[in-house]
Amino acid sequence: MIDIAPIRAQLGRKIVEFDEATATPLRGMIVTFDRDEKPPVAGEPIAPGWHLAYFPADSRLATLGQDGLPVTGGILPEMPLPRRMYAGATLTFHAPILVGDALRRETEFSDVQLREGGTGTLIVATQTRRIYTPRGLALTEDAVSVFREAVQPGTASGIPQTESPPAGMAWTKTWTPDPVSLFRYSALTFNPHRIHYDRPYATGVEGFPGLVVHGPFSQQCLLDLLRDNVSRPIARFEMRARAPLFDTKPFETMGRTTGNDTVELFAVGPSGGIAMQAKAILR
Fold first, then answer.
1. Buried b / exposed e across 89-105, counting CB within 10 Å, b at 16+?
2. How many domains does the chain fold into?
3. Do 60 and 73 contact (CB within 8 A), yes or no?
4. DSSP label of 57
5. Residue ranges of the chain with pLDDT lower than 50?
C-alpha cells in the first residue's frame, strides 16, 4: 500500500520563473502543426496553447530519471510510481500574452490523489501555473500528471478502453502523427520524455505499441480545431485525457457547439474510442 502522506505534506510548494514571449518558437508551432498562418510579431497575441513553448525546464542531467523526465529539482516531489503521463489540464485565459512580453510564472504543487484505475494504482498530481505579463495575470493552467506502476518486462502497457464520442460533430480533422512532428514538438516544449521520440524505449520498456503522442500535442490539435471554427476568444478550456494515442495510426479531432457560449471537443483513436475530451467556454 502506498502512503502518500509525505507527498501531501509538500502541497503548497511554489517556484517562480521568468521568461520572454519571443517569436521564434511560435514559428516552430506553426510548421509543426502545418498551419497556414503568419507568425505573430511584436505586440500581437500568441495563440491559445502556445505558452507551452516558454519556460523550458532547466533540469540538469543528473536529475533526470530513466524515462528522461526530472525526478528531483522541480515543483513535484519524487513519486513512488515510476511512469508518468499527462492526464489533462484546465486553462483559464484572463488576458492575452503578446509577443515581446516579459513573463513571470508562479507554479504551485496544488493537489495529489491516490486512486485505483483499470490499469492499476495511480497517483494523480496537479500543478497550478499562473503566467503574468506586465499588464497582470494572463493565464492560469492547472496541469494534471498521472504516475503509474512499472510494466513487467515483455508485457504490454494497459491501455484503457473508452466509449465512442456522441454523434453529430460539426467539425472534424484527421491527424497523422509521425516521428518528425513528435520530435519537433518535444524540442519546442523542451520535453525530454523518451516515450515521444525513443521508439525502443517506448515499446521495449514502457510496453506501448509505438511512440506516444504528447497529451499537450493532442490538446493543441483541439485548440486549433476550435479557433479554426469559432471566431470568439476562449475564456476557459478544460481537457481530460482518457487513453493514449500513438504514431502507428491516424486519429481524428472533432467538435461542435453545445450552447451559446460552450463547445465540446474530442480526440478519437483509430478504434473509435475517446482518447481526449474537452469543454471550452467562450467569451
1. bbbbbbeebbbbbebbb
2. 1
3. yes
4. -
5. none
pLDDT of residue 116: 86
Amino acid at 135: R
Domain with 234 in it: what CATH number?
3.10.129.10
268, 215, 246: which is closest to 52 by C-alpha? Answer: 215
Give the domain range for residue 115.
5-282
Q: Are strands 234-241 and 171-175 parallel, antiparallel or unpaired?
A: unpaired
What residue type is 69 in one-letter code? L
Q: Does an H or E element contain 269, and which?
A: none
Spatial CA neighbour of 259 closest among 282, 237, 277, 240: 282
pLDDT, tens digit, 9 for 90 and up, residues 111-125: 999 998 777 899 999
- Which grid cell sits at 101? 512580453
Question: Do 86 and 241 form a contact (C-beta atoms < 8 A)?
Answer: yes
Within 123-252, residue ranges assigned H as helices are 179-188, 199-204, 215-229
